[in-house]
Amino acid sequence: MNDVIKQKLNNISECSGVYIMKDADGTVIYVGKAKNLKNRVSQYFQNTQKQAKVQAMVEHIADFEYFITLSEQDAFALENNLIKKFQPFYNILLKDSKTFAYIKTNLKEDYPRFEITRKIKKDGSKYFGPYINGIAAKDVLNLLNLAFPVRKCKEKMGKKRARACLNYSIGLCKAPCMQYIDKSYYRKIVDEAVEFLKGNDNQVEAIITEKMQNYAQAENFEKALEMREHLKIIKKLKAKVVANLPRDLSLDAFAYVTDGEAGAVCALTLRSGKILGIEDFSINDASISDSESLQNFIIAYYKNKQIPDQIIVNLPMDNMDDFNEYLQSSFQKSTFVSCPKIALKNQIIKMAEENAREHLFKRVREDKLKFKRTLGALINLKNVLNLPQIPKRIECYDISNISGTNKVASMVVFENGEPARKMYRKFKIKTVEGSNDFASLEETLTRRLNELDKQEDESFSKRPDLIMIDGGKGQLSTCYNVLQNSKHSSIKMISLAEKFEEVYLPNKSTPLMLKRTGEELKLLIRIRDEAHRFAITFHRSLRGKSAISDPLDDIKGVGRAKRIALYKQFKTLTNIKSASVEELALVKGIHKDLAKTIFEYFHE
Fold first, then answer.
1. Where would I find the beta strands (DSSP E) of 75-175?
2. N or C: fewer beta carbons within 10 Å in the chain?
3. What percent of the chain has pLDDT over 70?
4. Mean pLDDT computed over 402-417
5. Is there a contact between 228 and 138 (Cβ–Cβ < 8 Å)?
6. Where are the beta strands (DSSP E) in 284-330?
7. Is 27 exposed, middle or buried (0-12, 13-18, 19+ CB in 10 A)?
8. How far is Cα 267 from Cα 349, in angstroms, rounded to an integer?
């Protein structure tokens, strides 16, 4: 613990609020909340036994800040906003959280329709789902439309159309747009459809079975087989019913387990007595308590999903009332979170807990391996290269050409040890004659650093922590001179020579030989090979284009119409090249000055 932290701990308030932990670079690495800021923040720095995941975060803390809030509900909200803003490494970040499909209907309309949506809006509509784990929303909607003649069109009701659509003709709709059905009868059909979406499959199964039998008797076997496929979907829906659960029970269950280093959460979705889905997540969260980790996960989980009325969890929470109030105010729904003790819901929680443990056992090794290959390798790289900070953004440059033609350069970017492909950039070499990789690298790096000053491009505007050159001592010296003559001389630079995988450092004649089995060298090789691949791919695409390009395209003033006229007159490019200015000027649309330009292009 440094002196800055010691002094801040003495002065920190005992109010509720939010705290942010920073590393030596000033990067926010964790955001947390507390009823008592002084007690909670002090816990991190006390000389007591901590879980490995917490200790790993504490070792990187160089400073912290805090914000006082009026209540813990306000602390929940502020913490959530700060996590979105800073994306800290030691917080739960479900960046790839899926948006599941729901079936939506607005029962406030006179003639409601049913549609699939992935966006939950506070528009008064009723949502059914989510549909996951082998049940497709479109299949459920097809079943509904087959069994119940509700409208499919998006037409505004009230204006009478000229005629009913095809759905009316084939018996799939009662044509409310033509006012062929009154509101009360239509509402009865809608209510039956809603019951189906709530889990009452029997009526739909009977309707589809009757249709299948009728088609079979009429020897329309293609349609009969189609109905049989629909019955298979109903069977799949029925198979998700859990024995002894009430048909009206709908909730989400969350179970969190940890081995001290890694954590896993199982999210179980139960709707109308059916388990619609079970998802497992590996999480990296440095909260002091497991219940707080679970709370943070639940908040992140519902970013793109509809929150149910009931949520059950496997861990008791000290601030359960505050958490409930926060969810209800954030999602404007009477959601209630509880840690169940009754046998029925406890059975569901145990099922989720077993899934979480299984996931933790299987995935923890994969997650640890990924950490070693990415962030772990970057930490090692910082140490072996004696860098001032972890090189979270590494840019690598490579040149590709054949005999000095179609010269190109690639810039690949790795962020946090993984390729950031949206940040890749490519260069056509403009000022270098012939095959000169040194001059090409000099031009490329000069242009890249100039773009950093402009702050216009999303990738170019980001400052790299480390620049890597594909090559040896010579390539590094050339690029390092460019760097030193720019405004950005403090950026660190290395090169990697391919034959023996030697790492060259500026102003050092002897290369650094990293351990061949070390993850830091493997990471550098992956980055270098990716730069090489990207450069070659770009070079090949240019070669392909130049092979089919026409030199006339490069002459200013010669467009498509004039090019066609030239070929019509002279038949071949060779004849055009050998034509005189006077002959060229005779072509329709080619005036004398343009004829002179064309002639000079081929006779420089």
1. 101-105, 114-117, 126-131
2. C
3. 94
4. 83
5. no
6. 310-313
7. middle
8. 10
Inter-CA distances, 257 with 269, 291, 303, 427, Å: 18, 10, 22, 49
Give CA separation, 263 vs 257, 291, 523, 576, in Å.
6, 12, 26, 73
Predicted TM-score (pTM) of the model is 0.55
Any residues with CB less than 8 A from the CB of 3 and at least 6 apart, and which?
Answer: none
Return the pLDDT at 173. Answer: 86
What is the maximum alpha-carbon separation in the chain? 100
- The Cα–Cα gap between 300 and 328 comes to 15
Q: What is the pLDDT of residue 95?
A: 55
- The span from the CA of 584 to the CA of 577, in Å, is 10
Contact status, residue 441 vs residue 479, Cβ threshold 8 Å: yes
Q: How confident is the model at residue 604 (pLDDT cuts 50, 70, 90)?
A: low
DSSP-derived secondary structure letter, 423: G
CA distance 79 to 361: 30
Residue with tokens 């990293």: 514
Q: Give 356-382 pLDDT, tens digit per residue.
A: 998 888 776 777 788 888 988 999 999
The CA distance from 229 to 139, in Å, is 10
pLDDT of residue 311: 94
Task: Identify the DSSP state of 554.
Answer: G
pLDDT in tens, 212-269: 999 899 889 998 998 998 888 888 777 666 555 677 788 999 999 988 877 899 999 8
Q: Kindly calculate the radius of gyration of the chain based on its CA atoms and give it in whole angstroms.
A: 33
Residue-wise pLDDT tens digits, 177-204: 877 888 889 999 999 999 888 878 888 8
Give the other-Cβ count within 10 Å of 388's Cβ. Answer: 11
Give the pLDDT band of residue 89 (cuts 50, 70, 90).
Answer: confident
CA 569 – CA 562 distance, rounded (Å): 11
What is the average pLDDT value for the chain, to the nearest integer?
A: 86
CA atoms of 171 and 279, how far apart (whole Å): 40
Sign of the CA dihedral with 22 first, then 23, 29, and 32 last: negative
Is residue 483 pLDDT above 80, yes or no? yes
Residues 440, 399 contacting (CB under 8 angstroms): yes
Q: Are strands 263-271 and 251-258 parallel, antiparallel or unpaired?
A: antiparallel
Beta strands 336-338 and 310-313 are parallel
Confidence of residue 418 (pLDDT cuts 50, 70, 90): very high
Q: In what order do the strands lie in the sheet with 63-68?
A: 28-34, 17-22, 63-68
Considering only CA atoms, which of 331, 345, 191, 333 is closest in space to residue 270? 345
Instruction: Report whether 471 contacts 477 (CB < 8 A).
Output: no
Are 468 and 495 within 8 A, CB to CB?
Answer: yes
Beta bridge mates, 399: 409
**C-alpha closest to that of 186 among 173, 200, 196:** 173
- Calpha distance 420→551 (Å, rounded): 37
Helix (H) or strand (E) holding 381: helix 375-384
Provide the pLDDT for residue 239: 66
**β 274-283/251-258 pair status:** unpaired
Residue 9 has pLDDT above 80, yes or no: yes
